[in-house]
Amino acid sequence: MKTHALSPACTRCGFKQKIRGFAMRNKDSRAITTNMQIVPLNRELDESVFSEALPIIEKPHGDNTEQTLQVDLLDAKYPIYIDFDLAPKIAKFLKNNSLEDRALIVSDKHLAARYGYCLHSKLQQEGLKSHYHELCGGKGNKTIFEALKIIEVLEKNNFSRDATLIGLGGGVVGDIAGLVASLWYRGMNLVHIPSTLIAMIDSSVGGKCAVNFGKTINALGAYHHPIANFVDLRLLQDLPDREFNSGMAEIIKCALIGDQKFFDYLISHKKKIRSRDQLAVRKIIQRTIELKERHVAGDIREGGKRLLLNFGHTLGHAIEMSTQGTEENLRHGEGVSLGMVAILNICERYFGLQKDLVKEVKGLLEYFHLPICFESKEYGFCRGPLLNTCMKMVLRDKKRKDGELRLILLEQIGGAYVKSCSDSDILEYGFESVISA
Fold first, then answer.
1. Quick check: is 38 in a domain?
2. 251 and 235 inside one domain
3. CB atoms closer than 10 angstroms to residue 27
4. CA dihedral sign, ordered 109, 114, 119, 120
5. If you write DSSP's letter for every residue of 141-180 in order, what string do you get?
6. Which letter, b or e, does each residue of 54-76 get, where b requires 16 or more Cβ atoms within 10 Å of its Cβ?
7. Lowest-pLDDT range, 213-217, 248-252, 399-403, 406-410?
8. Is residue 40 a part of any domain in this protein?
9. Does the residue 350 lie in any domain?
10. Dihedral, CA atoms, 394, 399, 405, 408, nearest 10 degrees?
11. pTM to 2 decimals?
């Protein structure tokens, strides 16, 4: 492998459907439209910042605390509820909208005491027959074997496809629950209750669900949309800082590929966001969901504009998997952060991206304690072998076409584009710019 001069930035970072069995009867559905857009919940949230908006389905008596966004894709329509303490609403939603009164909660075991058991109780209070299954939400458990354990529960308890599977947890739980729901009798009802910031803005729109196999990320998967998503902001209150910051990487990514005004908002409100100001956090969640829907609509299977959502993922996934030993060294968002920086460095060196923009993005990532580079020895690797592993991993990327990688590049904020790449020098430079000895 050739070596290239390291970017000056690479110093030590200081970072260690029509759905069977589902009859929608939403009494507040009068504001639903055919295209998803987002309106800020409160007018004082600088409404002028964002030009596109989604109608809000307001609560009765003028109570605007709860917000409902309506997703409308080619093959699926479903609501996303955003509020605090949504367990009672989830129970009522299933009672009023599901044709079968049975549900299986698949929960991250760490959420059992503070949310899972409460939800289980609320479902039973509404007359639903609720079953409960726990799993560990760690990356190492994102396997077909964990999915099969849930399928065994469904089979043992004679669940039909008209029953509902509820995924309560982060991205791993959401992926496994979604895959199981897609497989059981070719598709059962699915409800997401994401518990991390990255899951709230990533699993809310798109329908992708997958598990890893061997060294390949998301090798076994499907597309299966939920009947509803419930974003309970209460779950963010005691989310560890590292997990919150990991989610910020995906939010920054969506701003970079989709909206200069949103990126400016992240810059100007970064202190409020990092301190988890409720209004600011609610705003960035809803805007990120809208931006993701814009790229997903009409391109469910990543044939075109949806590919742009993989900005930073191609190289980031390779780094994430290559550094994963017995421990999870990098969170998904941290890998995406490194992948974005690697691509930005490539864009600056080979495609003329402005240096000041690259510097500004790196500064924002660092503000949220996200890595922009790292030392290979930090995770017990030698640089040369680690770079070789990263190159091997990236060449297995799912977005390959005709033997070439499809990289998502950036010419300006809001100006992402796809470029086929077969030049190993470019890829090597990207990895070398973020990995030092």
1. yes
2. no
3. 8
4. positive
5. G-SHHHHHHHHHHHHHTT--TTSEEEEEESHHHHHHHHHH
6. bbbbbeeeeeeebbbbbbbbeeb
7. 399-403
8. yes
9. yes
10. -100
11. 0.83
